[in-house]
């Protein structure tokens, strides 16, 4: 929702060249929301969904921060200033989401490392020695 508000502010401002970033972020957020809502992430196991969400959050925070600084410092109209302020708020929101997603990503990667062949091989050797 915040990306859509920023997109509308950039359309109404003199800084309309910055409208692409919030629009793309809005579309990506909708896609990931749709994927998680329809359990698409469980059907496509080859794609690391937590990593995709992590990269989206990191790039969004960096891009929103950069274009917000440019919008606030370069343009003097009210819509550009509003888009910049909302952009700074979005930067904070994406940074928080980045932190939460990072913790989920670490848990996901630790879970994947316990399913590695080396882990299973040592468990099989332990069970073979126990049966002797």
Walkthrough of the structure:
Pfam families: MARVEL. It is found in: Membrane. Residues 111-132 are annotated as: Disordered. Residues 1-106 form the MARVEL domain. With 132 residues, the chain is an all-alpha fold. The chain is 84% helix and 0% strand. It has one domain. The protein has helices spanning 2-12, 20-37, 40-43, 49-74, 78-114, 117-131. The radius of gyration is 21 Å and the shape is elongated.
How many DSSP helices?
6
Beta-strand segment tally: 0
| Largest sheet, strands/sense/barrel | none
Low-confidence stretches: 116-125
| Alpha-beta classification | mainly alpha
Radius of gyration: 21 Å
Number of domains: 1
What is the overall pLDDT average? 81
Distance between the termini: 62 Å
Assembly level: single chain
Strand proportion, as a percent range, falls in under 5%
Shape label: elongated
Return the string of H and E elements: HHHHHH
Helix percentage range? over 70%
Domain MARVEL: 1-106
Protein name: CKLF-like MARVEL transmembrane domain-containing protein 3
Membrane topology: Multi-pass membrane protein
Region (Disordered): 111-132
């Amino acid at each position: 929702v915040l990306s859509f508000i920023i997109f509308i502010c950039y359309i109404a401002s003199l800084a309309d060249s910055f409208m692409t970033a919030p629009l793309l972020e809005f579309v990506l957020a909708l896609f990931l929301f749709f994927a998680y809502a329809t359990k698409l992430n469980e059907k496509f196991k080859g794609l690391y969904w937590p990593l995709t969400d992590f990269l989206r959050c990191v790039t969004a925070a960096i891009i929103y921060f950069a274009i917000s600084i440019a919008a606030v410092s370069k343009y003097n109209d009210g819509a550009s200033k509003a888009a910049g302020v909302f952009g700074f708020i979005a930067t904070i929101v994406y940074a928080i989401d980045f932190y939460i997603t990072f913790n989920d990503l670490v848990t996901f990667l630790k879970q994947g490392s316990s399913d590695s062949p080396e882990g299973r091989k040592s468990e099989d050797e332990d069970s073979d020695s126990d049966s002797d």
